[in-house]
Amino acid sequence: MDNFTQQLLQVSSIFQGIPIDFKHEGIVTCSICEAEFSNLRGLRLHEGRIHSKSEKSIKCCECLRLFKNKYSLKTHVKQVHHKATREPCVRCGKVLYNKYMLKKHIKKCHPSIASIE
């Protein structure tokens, strides 16, 4: 079996039991971390990347933390070590890694602002 076929089988196993049609009206929310996606395909990719139960085997060369996949490592390095994305809270000044984390922070710590947005 060639490499392409092996990769295709791995990807198809992640999506086993999921309809081919990924179109979905409205926002889809992850039941584990409440991340929001515009369609089921985005949610399923997120679940595979972030919440899969595979072993953590990829190591960050800067802090030695282990990750499940290259995507998670790349995001970690970009946000933690390169400080590429930062979003300050206008209410308290806390600086968060990205807009998603800022939105969660506001919802949890400043519900009065969250209800306005």
UniProtKB/TrEMBL annotation:
A molecular function GO annotation: zinc ion binding
Keyword terms: Metal-binding, Zinc, Zinc-finger
C2H2-type domain residues: 28-56, 58-87
Superkingdom of origin: Eukaryota
Gene3D superfamilies with a match to the protein in the record: Classic Zinc Finger
PROSITE patterns: ZINC_FINGER_C2H2_1, ZINC_FINGER_C2H2_2
Key word Amino-acid biosynthesis present: no
A Pfam family per the record: zf-C2H2
Protein name: C2H2-type domain-containing protein
Organism field: Stentor coeruleus
